[in-house]
Amino acid sequence: MDLNDARAAREILQGVSEVTPLPHSRWLHELTGRDVRLKCENLQRAGSFKIRGAYTRIARLSDEERARGVVAASAGNHAQGVALAAATLGARATIFMPHGAALPKVQATLGYGAEVRFHGLGVTEALVAAAEFADETGATLIHPFDHPDIVAGQATVGLEIIEQLPEVSTILVPLGGGGLAAGIALLKSERPDITVVGVQAEAAAAYPGSLAEGIPVEADLGSTMADGIAVSRPGAVPFDLIRQHLDEVVTVSEESMSQALIGLLERAKLLVEPAGAVGVAALLEYPDRFEGPVVPVLSGGNIDALLLLEVIRHGLASGGRFLMFRVRISDRPGELMRLLTELAQMDVNILNVNHDRGSEALGVREVEVALQVATRGNDHREGVWRRLTELGYDPS
Fold first, then answer.
1. What kind and span of H or E run contains 85?
2. DSSP string, 339-389
3. Residues 18, 24, 26, 30: is their CA dihedral positive or negative?
4. Which of 41, 61, 110, 149 is the most exposed place for a label (fewest CB within 10 A)?
């Protein structure tokens, strides 16, 4: 495969996918000293880059194949991309989603006209069911990343980047199964001066082990908020391209991802899912590592509101802006007021207070107070902790 495959896919996608914006980020420029532009695929139709590959794949099916329908397995972005592409092309779509898939993503997939069936507890199990359905019905399986048409469609993101910013030096790409990273890495066939870096979550990084072995191998995945790139085994098609063209794979922590998401919300006014924010997380962890201009690809913005609340709290805590602690005080009038007054004098904003007298571990006339407070950053939080200790509160 080369960039001509991407150019052919772009012809197919004319009038279907959006040419997403590439705005400058002053916040990340100040942090890194580099020109940083954000490729906003979170603003793409159906909320992610997935429509590009899904539409390209389904459009290249014969009329007879489309008449038999398509089937896919996904917990979110791929489901919506396939559902929208199938509806646009007049094909019936059946999507297998794991039990417990986020309700907004299920509703969005249904809203595009697909039939949703639930199977298993993860995408791997759902994919097995989708393959069985394809064998039984003759429907075409639309794999989320392991097909040349999928890679060619995703590669159109790379074409847009070099047209919008010809002088780009580094592109940071979320890396899961590998379709998007492989597609963008095709740029190297004509632009060897560009560095393309794949970014994975530390807890769910399958590519480093597979690249070391020289073949796709199964990896044990830990828990990560970046479920969109938590893929245990790279696809054969993208793996070969990534091994040829990708310059580097880096991993990022959960803390960096949550801080990246909050930064994008607060500073760039962009809603991005954790998997889509890993490129920005890489800049937070390695601000001096990448040559500019740098383009992190914001691959998607489909995030469940409940997960968003959890990620925001996690990010505020890791950034020193949210603190939870417990202290024991005497069960006497005025003691709680004294504690709250001390906190007010330290410019701490109190979010929640829980007063517990019932624990067996407490002494006579002792009360445990659990507090959630907002602080201004790590230095302020450490100062609050130090002052509480000096006052004899022994926070924990």
1. helix 77-89
2. HHHHHHHTTPEEEEEEEE---TTS-TTEEEEEEEEE-SSHHHHHHHHHHHH
3. positive
4. 110
What residues contact residue 360 under an 8 Å CB cut-off, 6+ apart? Answer: none
Q: Find, among 274, 289, 245, 273, the residue nearest to 36 by Cα.
A: 289
Q: What are 100's two structure tokens?
A: 């417990």
Q: How far is CA 215 from CA 182, 190, 207, 233, in A?
A: 15, 25, 10, 10
The answer to whether the CB of 230 falls within 8 A of the CB of 259 is no
Tell me which of 39, 50, 105, 188 is the catalytic residue: 50
Which amino acid, one-letter code, is at 354?
N
Active site residue 50: yes
Query: What pLDDT digit, counting tens, does each position of 146-195 carry?
Result: 999 999 999 999 999 999 999 999 999 999 999 999 999 999 999 999 99
Assigned token pair, 363: 């002494």
Q: Can you tell me the distance from the alpha carbon of 93 to that of 47, in angstroms, rounded to the nearest whole number?
A: 18
Sign of the Cα torsion 279, 283, 285, 288 reads positive
Q: State yes or no: is 105 an active-site residue.
A: no
Report whether the peptide linkage leading into residue 23 is cis, meaning its omega lies within 30 degrees of zero: no
